[in-house]
Design brief:
elongated, alpha+beta, 4-stranded antiparallel β-sheet
């Protein structure tokens, strides 16, 4: 007997990781609140560098760019660095 999990009709694969850079002309928490209200799932708030990381679809990411206080929305990518003695590190 198998178990079927349904996530409220949401297709999880459509979400990508993003880095939102804040311009500094609005409070970080105000921008974070508006990002969340737009559909962005906040993962980390990096207040020292003015960035917020999280996930959203491409459509939502495009809407995030129009929010006052948002300077940039860029895809987040994983970076893997090999062991210290490895010839290839990327």
């Amino acid at each position: 007997m198998g178990i079927l999990l349904q996530w409220g009709g949401t297709i999880m694969d459509s979400a990508k990781k993003w880095i939102v850079t804040i311009s500094g002309n609005r409070l970080l928490n105000d921008v974070k609140k508006q990002l969340t209200e737009t559909g962005f799932t906040v993962e980390q708030v990096l207040d020292q560098v003015g960035c917020i990381t999280g996930s959203a679809s491409d459509d939502i990411a495009a809407r995030l760019r129009t929010i006052p206080g948002v300077a940039d929305v860029s895809p987040d990518t994983d970076v893997g660095i090999g062991p210290p003695d490895d010839a290839i590190t990327w």
